[in-house]
Amino acid sequence: MKREISVIITFALVNLLLVFSCSQEAGAQVKVEKGVLDLRSYEVSNKIIKLNGEWEFYWQKHLAPGDFRSQTKPPPDTWGKVPSYWIKYADEIPGIENTGYATYRMNIYFPGNVSEVVFEIPVFDAAFRVYIDGKYAGSNGIAGKSEAGTKPDYDPFSYRHRIINGSAEIIVNVSNYHHRRGGFWMPMKVGTPEVVTESIERQNSMSDLSAGILLAFAAFFFVFFIIFKDNDAMLFFALATMGILIRSISTGYYMVHTYMDISWTNLVRLEYTGSFIALIFGSWYFYRIFSNKYFKIICTIISVLFGTAIILVLTAPVIIFSHSIRIFMPAILLVLVYYGYMSIISLLKTERKGILNTIGFLALFIGAINDLILSTSNTFLFSNYILPYTTIIFIFMQVIILINSWVNSINEEKRLLSELEYVNLNLEKMVNERTSELAQQKGELERQKEEIQEKNTELETNIHIKDRVFSIIAHDLRTPVVNLGMLIESTGSSKKVIEDEMLAEEARRQVDFTLNLIDNLL
Question: Are 159 and 137 a contacting pair, CB within 8 Å?
Answer without folding.
Answer: yes
